[in-house]
Recover the amino acids of this structure.
């Protein structure tokens, strides 16, 4: 009896593993991928031209891996967000100096994201809330 259940369990594990690998291979290229800043820094060419969702500390139009990186201006751990080219400062000012989830497209291997479609900031004890949303169809970086 135990051998029968063991075979069933092994079959289920193999079935689930094979299906998850197949799903990754057939995934839609247009889905928004969640990526760490450090992964983007390590191989920016892999993410070039792709819409990404990135978590980091937003300060002075840069998304830093951590707040401490912002505090000491460690630019090698930052992605430039040229928000001033698509929105007035008043619209994005309240998003600065928070941990944030930024959705946009990596447009340069020198670590610049454009076409920022949303910024969600973290509020202590409350989770993330929308701070900025851009719905324009035109952009400088197509």
């Amino acid at each position: 009896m135990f051998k029968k259940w063991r075979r069933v369990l092994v079959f289920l594990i193999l079935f689930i593993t094979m299906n998850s690998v197949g799903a990754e291979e057939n995934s839609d290229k247009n889905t928004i991928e969640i990526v760490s800043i450090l992964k983007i820094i390590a191989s920016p060419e892999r993410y070039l031209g792709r819409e990404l969702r990135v978590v980091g500390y937003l300060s002075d139009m840069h998304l830093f891996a951590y707040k401490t990186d912002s505090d000491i201006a460690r630019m090698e751990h930052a992605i430039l967000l040229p928000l001033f080219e698509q929105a007035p400062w008043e619209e994005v000012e309240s998003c600065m100096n928070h941990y944030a989830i930024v959705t946009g497209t990596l447009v340069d291997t020198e670590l610049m994201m454009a076409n920022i479609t949303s910024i969600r900031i973290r509020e202590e004890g409350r989770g993330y809330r929308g701070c900025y949303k851009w719905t324009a169809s035109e952009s400088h970086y197509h």
In short: Helices lie at 2-25, 37-42, 44-47, 67-71, 89-92. DSSP finds five helices and seven strands in the chain.
